[in-house]
Design brief:
about 350 residues, mainly alpha, two-stranded antiparallel sheet, about 75% helix
Length: about 350
């Protein structure tokens, strides 16, 4: 396992700047616009670097017999989504086309594995639909949250480490292997993505990670209610930010399909916070989910109570912190009416 982790990290750390340099030479850059959080044209080839690095590590792990049929299918499906994201990075695809492919891949995965998140007491088609919706929602939430330097990479490392620990706790070598390799691959990329970012992960990276984290319960293959809760807890800041923003935009009767900059993390940067502190804030919030998921997996006394209190409190803190920062900026601008 150590060999696969080291090789994965080195491949990602070496391939990321090479692909970024090639993208610069060919003019394949993310050019800033009015909605961007960056001001310098930047390559979006990070995912094209760390996904192959992850797969190299998986091949090494496979030779050691640590993967199951379920884990191979989950990783393979996530790789298909990475290719879809890469196509979108190179030639912009319509949102409808991306959504249809995501749903089709998720549906195929769920049907082949005959696995669903809901109890078998309900009609199977409901369980299948909910599971597919969950995976697609995770995929898109991750894409929406990849908007500032380091935030998506930081979340991936936390969630990867979380799944690695959970894999060891519940005796699931595939979950441990996938978690460690995600951490190593994204770690090699994050060297260049931390603010100020020299490369972005692009849709190839965010689609891969979002789908993989959403489908991890299928790779674990047991304790369906529990693994679903773990999966949600490990990426809860991204799910909360996306869900909160969606509800807020609906209440304001805004077009939810139009581009915007109203996510909580975006509002923080607009209010003057730099990328690194915001990314670190989300990392710290995600660590609460790691602690909660491990406590639940270990059946620690009070784990459910801790989770039910700590996560909502952390979500409330995030919201209040954002609004207080915005109020501070608004008050300062009112104090200096002639300032720019």
């Amino acid at each position: 396992m150590i060999l696969s982790v080291v090789v994965t990290f080195l491949v990602a750390a070496g391939l990321t700047p090479l692909l970024a340099a090639g993208a610069r030479r060919r003019g394949l850059l993310d050019v800033p616009n009015a909605r961007s959080s960056h001001i310098v044209a930047t390559p979006r080839t990070g995912g094209a670097a760390f996904v192959p690095a992850f797969l190299v590590g998986m091949v090494i792990v496979e030779t050691q017999g640590a993967l199951t049929y379920e884990a191979r299918l989950v990783v393979g499906s996530a790789t298909v989504l990475a290719l879809l994201g890469l196509a979108d990075d190179l030639r912009s695809l319509s949102a409808t086309a991306r959504l249809l492919v995501q749903a089709a891949v998720a549906c195929a995965l769920v049907l082949v594995l005959d696995w669903q998140l809901l109890p078998s007491l309900l009609p199977s088609w409901i369980g299948i639909a909910v599971t597919v919706l969950w995976i697609v929602a995770c995929t898109n939430a991750y894409n929406f949250m990849d908007g500032i330097d380091g935030i998506a990479g930081g979340q991936a490392i936390v969630a990867g480490l979380g799944w690695a620990v959970l894999g060891f706790v519940i005796g699931s070598p595939p979950a441990a292997a996938i978690g460690l390799l995600v951490t190593a691959a994204v770690g090699g990329f994050l060297i260049y993505n931390w603010a100020p970012a020299r490369v972005f992960m692009g849709d190839a990276g965010s689609a891969f990670l979002g789908f993989l984290f959403g489908a991890m319960p299928l790779a674990v293959g047991e304790d369906r209610p529990g693994s679903m809760i773990w999966a949600a807890l490990l990426v809860w800041p991204f799910l909360f930010d996306t869900g909160f923003t969606l509800v807020r935009r609906i209440r304001r009767r805004e077009d939810i399909f139009s581009a915007h900059r109203s996510h909580l993390y975006q509002r923080l940067t607009i209010a003057g916070s730099s990328h690194s502190p915001v990314a670190m804030l989300y990392v710290i919030l995600a660590l609460i989910g790691v602690v909660a998921s491990i406590a639940l997996a270990l059946h620690t006394a009070g784990a459910a109570t801790f989770t039910a209190i700590a996560v909502p409190l952390a979500a409330f803190f995030l919201w209040r912190y954002v609004t207080s920062r915005e109020a501070h900026v608004a008050g300062r601008s009112h104090s200096f009416p002639f300032s720019s």
